[in-house]
Amino acid sequence: MSSLPTIIQDVFNEPGCPRNASKSKVERKNGCTKQLKPGGAAGGCAFDGAKIALQPFTDVAHLVHGPIACEGNSWDNRGSASSGSDLWRRSFTTDMSETDVVFGGEKRLYRAVKEITEKYDPQAIFVYQTCVPAMIGDDIDMVCKAASAKFGKPVIPINSPGFVGSKNLGNKLAGEALLEHVIGTGEPDYTTPYDINIIGEYNLSGELWQVKPLLDELGIRIVSCISGDGKYREVACSHRAKAAMMVCSRAMINVARKMRQRYGIPFFEGSFYGIEDSGDSLRQIARMLIERGAPAELMERTQALIAREETKAWTAIERFKPRFAGKRVVLITGGVKSWSMVAALQEAGLEIVGTSVKKSTEKDKERIKELMGQHAHMIEDMSPHEIYKMLKDAKADIMLSGGKSQFVALKAATPWLDINQERCHAYMGYVGIVKLMEEIEKALYNPIWDQLRQAAPWDEFDWKRQAKTVAQMHAQAVDPVRGANTNGVKTISFSNKTEIGDGESAVAAHGPNPVEAAKPCTESTARSLACKDICSDLQPPALQAAE
Ligand code: SF4
Predict the structure, then answer these.
(1) What's the gap in Å between 119 CA and the centre of ligand 1?
(2) Which of 200, 293, 299, 317 has a CA positioned 20 to 30 A from the CA of residue 5?
(3) Alpha carbon of 416 to those of 76, 78, 405: distances in Å?
């Protein structure tokens, strides 16, 4: 078993990543983490990345070894969907305390594995290492091995404590754990020439299920999806697949490459976002399976299915084109979505004014250039302030991004749509692209945006008060005597009768203390007599205009 520093260096040396390959030996040792700029958001830690990558395995208990805050709320932190067990959503943590920090947390971890086994009897337990136990030297590999032998169940150590690096490194370390402890440890009941793996797909909002019926229709079997709606036994048998589609290369390139190296499974990078990309991916799967022994007629059936689904999808999105004419989109996402979403949006006639490439590979960038031209506006690293300015200057009509930047759009009173993992809608495949258009239309034409762009009531008040002062100054300038004596006020209201005159005449008519008489109607005090019930038709013209 390799040590954690050795595994990390191996991940940093990933030959499947063109960006890594272009770096010098020294640069490669430092990994891909960039120094944060003030005001920028940090993103998750390596533990977070590992948990995100593996949590969608649904029949596995995910046990976090560390203080309770590392785990947080696991129930709804990820939009993945399960077709069966909900075990994956439950929070299991060893909840380490000060005593464990002093005396070590290994026994506590062992007891936690025992308790989970007795209460839930899961297919497997994934044990995630976090900063505190890693720093005090808890050996989770040893505990997992002992627990596995004792309880007769796979107990898999996921060695990715937060301090070792970024969320993306954590994704890859999670992949390394699968390669070392899970993949190749089982055998499927049967195999077919149509068996594939899908790698780096998380079944967010159940979007894989929008594509699976198409694969089922073609007779193509998903042996294992890593990890959306994944099952432990499926991933254990995934080395028997004939081909693989890699959906997010940034997260799981090491898994796809090493499976090709170890088991001879070819892979390609594809996307099911958008009409064109869905067709391309289906064709590519068919092509690879035929190369690995599937009958050639698979391609004919695939082409027929693509033609049928494309016709349906184009017809469905046609109605959005007039609604989207001239509308501009800024896309703040990463990885495969930075280009696959571009294609999907362009298909509906939206103009892309910029797409972020912070988390994209060189290959992703090349694809963006193919779609948007050589001068495509690729946003390398935009601070929230710059995004806000871009939206405030009305350079985009809508922003599509993850939840992290939603408040920037809301502050700029610009429509926003969540396209990252917390989203509530599934956008994959031919059905998904139509759903995406529906949601963009709803966001763009939601009446709330007009209301938000109006001045706030307190801004309105200041503006009126300013106009009132100007009007009074104007009245005094025009008629200094009247202005000085009456301050522009001609009407005083007492109870239910209205009299013309100024303050002095009111005193003459109602005695030296007219306040009591005035109160029922005006609620005036001695200082503000005659101020409340000024008839609007007698106010200075400028003031009326202002109000
Ligand atoms: S950085 Fe460390 S302490 Fe913080 S959440 Fe990640 S694993 Fe836990």
Answers:
(1) 27
(2) 200
(3) 21, 20, 9
